[in-house]
Amino acid sequence: MENEKKNAVYVICRGYYCGVHAGYIKEREGNHVVLNEARRLWKWKAAKGISLSEVAKYGIDASGSRVCTKCGEIWLGDVYEVIPCTGAARKTIEEAADADVG
């Protein structure tokens, strides 16, 4: 996995039904995407700006976001937007605390 990760691009995917996810892109065919080390951005607030484009560039404001725990791999079947992330943005998503029910 570590070797795959070196060559993989960290992205944010927005799906019609599945919502917003971030992770390392493993496969993509049409609107089907497989992500490794994926996290669902259940609620997100851009560190700067208002859109997912800014989240991909600047990262999230963790205090205004709810990020779910990381899963090994996720298959998304309805993706219509894939945005590559900067290293700084990836770091804010990966370091965000897991959201809890409360």
> Could you give the distance between the termini?
33 Å
Shape: globular
Please state the structural category.
Answer: alpha+beta
The profile of the biggest β sheet is: 6 strands, antiparallel
Percent range for β-strand residues: 35-45%
Topology of helices and strands:
Blueprint: H1 2-7, E1 10-15, E2 19-29, E3 32-43, H2 52-58, E4 66-67, E5 71-76, E6 79-84, H3 87-95
Antiparallel strand pairs: 1-2, 1-6, 2-3, 3-4, 3-5
What can you see in these coordinates?
With 102 residues, the protein is an alpha+beta fold. The protein has one domain (2-72, 81-95). The chain has three helices and six strands, in the order αβββαβββα. The chain has helices at 2-7, 52-58, 87-95, and strands at 10-15, 19-29, 32-43, 66-67, 71-76, 79-84. Strands 1, 2, 3, 4, 5 and 6 form a six-stranded antiparallel sheet that branches. The longest helix is centred in the C-terminal third of the chain and has 9 residues, at 87-95. The radius of gyration is 12 Å and the shape is globular. The mean pLDDT is 94.
In short:
This protein is α+β, with helices and mostly antiparallel strands and 102 residues long. It is 22% helix and 42% strand. It has one domain.
Can you tag this structure with a few keywords?
alpha+beta; 6-stranded antiparallel beta sheet; 102 residues; globular
